[in-house]
Design goal:
The chain has 13 helices and 17 strands. The protein has helices at 10-22, 49-56, 69-76, 110-121, 130-133, 139-145, 156-165, 194-198, 242-255, 276-285, 294-298, 308-314, 320-328; strands at 3-7, 26-31, 43-45, 62-66, 88-92, 98-103, 124-126, 149-151, 169-173, 188-191, 204-208, 222-226, 230-236, 263-269, 289-292, 333-340, 343-349.
């Protein structure tokens, strides 16, 4: 579920109905006694409010509570895990006068959600995060918007504090994914590569990269933003378990100093669409699998010599290399074909 709107009064049910109609992927939950004030499609709940939240919390990306803030704080307390894990939470009064960003303002998107809700209700968004108050683009907010994973999350506070203080921060952004957001921010200096970054005297560093950074957790002045731009091409024998595929992928990425957190998708031949181990590996990682026909794979000029085994088994001259290149829209491999037991792996960067 994308967004749960929960109202507990008749006025809240009416406001929630209007909000649900203006927000994609939103569901409205109301108690039975106020079902009449809610529009068609509202979900009626009969359990206690805290039980409803407990049921929805694991699978919901955002919550809008139309009720008193104190009620919400007490209900949410047992469920909070961390700013990189908690969903967005916004609290509204039943008149729609205020939309308060309460939890996960940046990473969860609650600040942005509060603005949308205020626009929909004609009210005022209440946002208290320091960077927003001072008109600065927070690192975690920009990362969320651009689909970048943050490592380590504990360093967000320091790097955002350096922004607020106007301290020098060196930014390495080879593909210019976020540099435009910080072009006019005092103290942020953009350089071409890691080597250049080391030459700049800076209080903090931000690297936008799929490269593995050794000892990252020990560096409290460094924030790494991971793009999902690596395509892992995979070929495997029938019945290869997910554990073996994972071990091979992890090892080859590590050897090439590439981060597994930057995997965008897996790519393989279409006859592997029902390969249980491969599909389980993808599911565990939360990444999609793209499938290509033998004809499509054979149309790609891959570096490796044609494989007699692949030709005989699936009718393709190769699987992992051409699949990676096709999916990435590239003609260059970061990792050329590696044969490891039952698995072949190649990696390309998405253009």
């Amino acid at each position: 579920m994308n967004l749960a709107i929960i109202a507990i009064t008749s006025g809240g049910a009416r406001l929630g109905t209007g909000l649900r109609e203006r927000l994609d992927g939103a569901d409205l939950f109301v108690p039975a006694k106020h079902a009449g004030e809610a529009g068609e499609g509202a979900i009626v709940f009969s359990v206690e409010l805290k039980e409803l939240v407990r049921q929805l919390w694991p699978d919901c990306r955002g919550f809008v509570f139309i009720m008193a803030t104190g009620i919400v704080v007490r209900i949410l307390a047992p469920h909070l895990r961390g700013k990189d894990l908690d969903p967005a939470v916004v609290v509204m009064d039943e008149a729609g006068a205020f939309a308060v960003s309460l939890l996960s303002g940046h990473l969860g998107g609650a600040n942005e959600l509060a603005r949308k809700l205020a626009e929909a209700s004609g009210g005022q968004a209440v946002i208290t995060t320091a960077t927003d108050v001072n008109g600065l683009p927070a690192w975690d907010e920009v990362a969320r918007r651009e689909g970048l994973r943050i490592e380590p999350v504990k360093n967000i506070r320091r790097l955002n504090s350096l922004l607020l203080q106007g301290e020098r921060i060196v930014l390495v952004d080879r593909r210019r994914r976020i540099s435009r957001h910080f072009a006019s921010v005092p103290g942020v200096v953009t350089v071409a590569n890691f080597a250049a970054a080391q030459q700049v005297g800076a209080a903090g560093k931000v690297f936008v990269t799929h490269r593995h950074i050794p000892h990252l957790e020990a560096q409290d002045d460094l924030l790494v933003l991971r793009p999902r731009d690596l395509v892992v091409g995979i070929g495997c024998n029938r019945g290869t378990p997910a554990e073996e595929i994972e071990e091979v992928v992890e090892r080859e990425l590590r050897r090439a100093f590439l981060s597994p957190h930057s995997i965008a998708c897996l790519a393989t031949i279409d006859v592997k669409a029902d390969e249980e181990g491969l599909n389980l590996f993808a599911k565990n990682r939360g990444i999609p699998v793209e499938h290509y026909s033998a004809e499509a794979l054979n149309s790609v000029s891959a570096p490796a010599e044609p494989s007699p085994h692949a030709l005989a088994a699936v009718g393709a001259k190769g699987v992992c290399e051409p699949a990676a290149l096709l999916s990435a829209g590239s003609d260059t491999l970061l990792i050329k074909k590696k044969i490891c037991g039952n698995v072949t792996v190649a990696v390309a960067e998405k253009i």
